[in-house]
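Dataset card, provenance and construction

Sequences and ligand SMILES were collected as paired inputs. For each pair, a complete structure of the chain with the small molecule in place was predicted and serialized as structure tokens. The example below shows a pair involving coenzyme A. Curators did not alter the output after generation; any descriptive sentences attached to a record were derived from the structure itself.
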Amino acid sequence: MYTLTNWADTTHPDHGLLRAGVELSHREAEAFHGHPDFSEPFEGIFAEACRGEYYDRDFVVLRDDAPDGEVRGFLQVLYPLSDNTHLGFVWSEAQGRDTDLTVALLAEAERLAAARGRTSIMEWTDHREAADGEPVLDAATGAGRINPTDSLAAAYLACGWELEQTERHSILPLPVDQEMLDRFAAQSRAVAHPAYELVSWVDRTPDELLAGHARLNQAMSTDVPHGELDMEETVHTPERVRYNEDTLAAANKGYLAVAARHCESGEIVGFTRVDYPHVWPEAVFQAATLVLDGHRGHRLGMWMKADLLTRLRELRPDARRLHTWNASENDHMLSINVALGFEVRTVVAAWQKKLTPIHT
Ligand SMILES: CC(C)(COP(=O)(O)OP(=O)(O)OC[C@H]1O[C@@H](n2cnc3c(N)ncnc32)[C@H](O)[C@@H]1OP(=O)(O)O)[C@@H](O)C(=O)NCCC(=O)NCCS
């Protein structure tokens, strides 16, 4: 187990080990998912990691005990700095989803997070849906289940983590039938218009919408179902919106957003956003969708998404897969996505462990 204290120094051997760890995670993700969409180039991950205003990080590699020992495990623990300062978000990758390697990585994550005074750690891991006749473990929310004997699940359970929630990872094959999108857009618009209208932008929020964009991001942190995950409101400001946009650009990614404006107040009250890597035209990732409380039930969710998918066709003509993650109990969001044609791929387990902080 080796903590990469010099990972940001590109001339130091730690930097090479960071790259090796990220490459291990790419191999594992591709083997599990059967496509390279989660193999974000190292340069992008590194550029993002170097922007440390809102998050600090620990990186660790687990390698064979030899001078050039093979890297068999990789760990990042991400620490929010401006809110949720009790949390550590864990990203662990063990070669072959091995139980013992995962146990070692989780123990290290726990030690590092506790040393920083963090009291809850959480991680999201990919699983196949439990097949008929297999043992099942239900999430604490009661929605979604996994097979607890799966090699990864076994590691989390052995380390005392709780399965708090599951998410459904789904893919929408692109491009989507345009007639269907036009029909959904027209049906939703008939309900929402003229009280609401749509606006859209790419990569940079228009100045006059910045405060509204920050408010919508903040609402994402409270209004999306989180079960008993120990998350508090994330504070978003116009400056943080710009910071996040600059971080995406630094990681060589773009984004498309469609928002719903309430015509009477002039405020944007809902948005949907997708991100995409410039270097890999086939993949697009749903980053957010929300309608503010008080404006729900007017079909804005479907209207914004149908409009975004129509714009995406022109903006990313080679896109083939739109990925999304939805809490298994989020019926309203899931019903919109199912209607649009999203297909379930994996169950994502949201694990949590409460810690006793070590004050050094
Ligand atoms: C998911 C979401 C975007 C749907 O937006 P929407 O524009 O309100 O969607 P719709 O108008 O199609 O309404 C969806 C359902 O909510 C119901 N609804 C009506 N008024 C509502 C209100 N005040 N609050 C909540 N739901 C309401 C509607 O009746 C409808 O139910 P039905 O399908 O049984 O008729 C919205 O519920 C939301 O922002 N949720 C919180 C954020 C979230 O979970 N985002 C997804 C993250 S993955």
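Derived descriptions for this record:
The CA atoms of residues 19 and 42 lie 6 Å apart.
Residues 223-224, 289-291, 296-302, 326, 330, 332-333, 335 surround coenzyme A (CB under 6 Å).
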